[in-house]
Amino acid sequence: MSEKSGRWIIRVVMVIALTTFVGFSLLPLLNNVIKANQMPSEATSTPSQGAQSSQQPDLEAQARGYELVLQREPDNQAALKGLLEVRLQALAQKKGDVQDVIPPLEKLVKLNPEEPRYGVLLAQAKQYIGEREGAAQIYRQILISKPGNIEALQGLASLLIQQNRPTAAIGLLQDTIKTANTVNQAAPGSIDVPAVQLILGDVYAQQKRYDEALAVFDEIIKNNKDDFRPVLAKALVLKMQGKTEDARAIFAKAINLAPAQYKDQIQQLAAGAPTPAPSPANIPSLTEEPANMTPAPAPATSSPLPKSVN
After folding, report:
1. What is each CA distance from 167 to 78, 133, 162, 204, in whole angstroms?
2. Phi-psi category of 242—alpha, beta or left, where left has phi over 0 and alpha has psi -120 to 50?
3. What is the pLDDT of residues 54-85, one digit of tens each?
4. Rounded to two decimals, what is the model's pTM?
């Protein structure tokens, strides 16, 4: 296994969740917004291009309709969400531009300051198009009021790594863990420590600080004995180190702990079998149990992580 593919495969474990799923790169997360509203015909192709066109909505016409409403009612959230949805569908069909989703997102962030997800989506969009300072500012603003927001922590950590500042990313995550007890005493459940630790362990693994990554995963395992994700993470790190026999035993434990829908894919990882490429149709929603554990390709170094550990 090459070094590059090794770094990719360690991230596989970070997209597994039992009840929630958090995407990290732009398109996996944004596509979740439209997944429930995609037309069934999108999953079916026909030889006739004309037939395909007749089955698909006229996204440009829909967008124009929402824009006309917004000219009269700039704060109409139904129209803003509809416009965002249409532009996300265009992105999913490779007919749009990431820049197009930014204006409605900016408006939705302004109208919904209590809802961090819009801010995360906006930050990811800015990060995707290279506006890193703007993205970092949004992530940090979210973390001021919600220091345990996993999506914002993931985003900012990834951004710092893109800027060749892994020490800052590690410091951000370590500080979050150190302050968790105090924060959670004031507002119980604000910081999900195991989830933050998973991000930290992945950052260590990306930096080839394998001993530190393993120490983090071992600590999660010690405190969450029924959670298969840190077990799988540990197995993958051992495999990356070439410790095949040690990894095999840990993979077996992960398979034993994992829900049925993940067992076959973990076995494939243990055997070194390639993982199928993802598509928008198999990207899970942020609020539903994922149908698979395959990460979508990210535009830069990133690590999708589960929001909570059960």
Report:
1. 42, 18, 12, 10
2. left
3. 435 688 899 999 999 999 999 999 999 999 88
4. 0.69
